């Protein structure tokens, strides 16, 4: 019997929509480093990107588990939800910490697709893993904040109207805790670019629309502050847990795509007069990747259930992200090996997906930092930093 928490109707609808965007579509975008505008529009028009927005603001008001189903199916179809997943995880910050006026102003437009909230600006050249060391500052001047500094690796800013931005409003040294003194601002990129914000494209291993941002006295209205000044880290934490769970779901989709692709090829490809999949040396790694994926999927489900129940989900979100990203990588490596030389050719899509899924052991949080979090916060081991 279908489990309601797995959202079979959503999965079916997303899968049919993705069928209109086959491997050739993603391959061509990858080769030309272009953004999947038509795909994102189709998802938006079908309402799949607004599943987390409450019905009162024009969305469908569904839990995080539904968003997981959407993203998992995109990856499982061979596509890449990295083009639009930020709208789902940044939503937590706006929904839980935004004021009524902010929600009324932005959410209906985001729900109907006339406003894109796809950018989340945290990382800086001198602070990736250690968020508390960000140096981009926002200083209050009359009714505005004035922003100066630099961000790096910020994805999709050239395909987004709004950005959730983390800045320092008080120095780290002057704050009670290192994570105090940071604040979240909602930046309207349409007004900011050319008026204190410069965006420069940053090419990476995969087609991810990454950019560098340079702030030079950018003025942002103080009414765009989300939550309380100085409390920004706490405001983005909700979004970060959601992000880890959603990305874990994407990794499960990747892992399932790789494993289905491996099994199919191993059944069809004949070497020495028989299917290569008859050899246990070929079939066992595929079976192992499948087992790893199904175990990781259970942790993703648990993390999403806890998050949706409003219960603490930090440990489970992190464990789900670690297990799922490693399962996807094991499945990807096995898929390349199973395909032999063809795993390296663009036309099979394996090499593209292999590059794409590698990201998730580094971003949005690296495997080492998850291990450190579990060791110190769950197991009471001493901190190394
Ligand atoms: C394609 C791409 C898209 C991205 N998109 C965004 C985005 O949209 N918005 C955004 O804000 N950021 C984004 N990022 C940034 C990403 O979140 C960071 O790259 C990530 O947080 C790691 O930071 P770093 O690269 O500075 O690595 P560093 O912090 O320099 O770490 C380097 C390595 O050292 C390890 N390390 C560091 N400290 C320790 C320790 N104490 N113990 C053990 N190991 C340690 C880390 O695990 C890592 O493997 C993106 C990155 C990429 C590559």
How would you explain this protein's 3D organization?
With about 375 residues, the chain is of the alpha+beta class. It folds into three domains: about 5-110, Orthogonal Bundle (Butyryl-Coa Dehydrogenase, subunit A, domain 1), CATH 1.10.540.10; about 115-230, Beta Barrel (Butyryl-CoA Dehydrogenase, subunit A, domain 2); about 235-380, Butyryl-CoA Dehydrogenase, subunit A, domain 3 (Up-down Bundle), CATH 1.20.140. The chain contains twelve helices and ten strands. It has helices spanning about 10-20, 25-30, 35-45, 65-75, 85-95, 100-110, 190, 230-270, 280-310, 315-340, 350-360, 365-380; strands at about 115-120, 135-140, 145-155, 160-170, 180-190, 195-200, 210-220, 225, 270, 275. It has a four-stranded mixed β-sheet. It has a four-stranded antiparallel β-sheet with strand order 2-3-7-6, with no helix packed on it. α1 runs parallel beside α4 (about 65-75). The longest helix has about 35 residues, at about 230-270. Bound molecules: flavin-adenine dinucleotide. Flavin-adenine dinucleotide (FAD) binds near residues 120, 121, 155, 362 and 385.
**What percent strand?**
15-25%
Q: Give the biggest beta sheet.
A: 4 strands, mixed
Low-confidence stretches: none
CATH architecture of the largest domain: Up-down Bundle
Q: For the CA atoms, what is the radius of gyration?
A: 21 Å
- How many β-strand runs? 10
| Shape call | globular
- Structural class from helices and strands? alpha+beta
Please give the alpha-carbon distance between the first and last residues: 48 Å
Compounds present? flavin-adenine dinucleotide
Count of discrete domains = 3
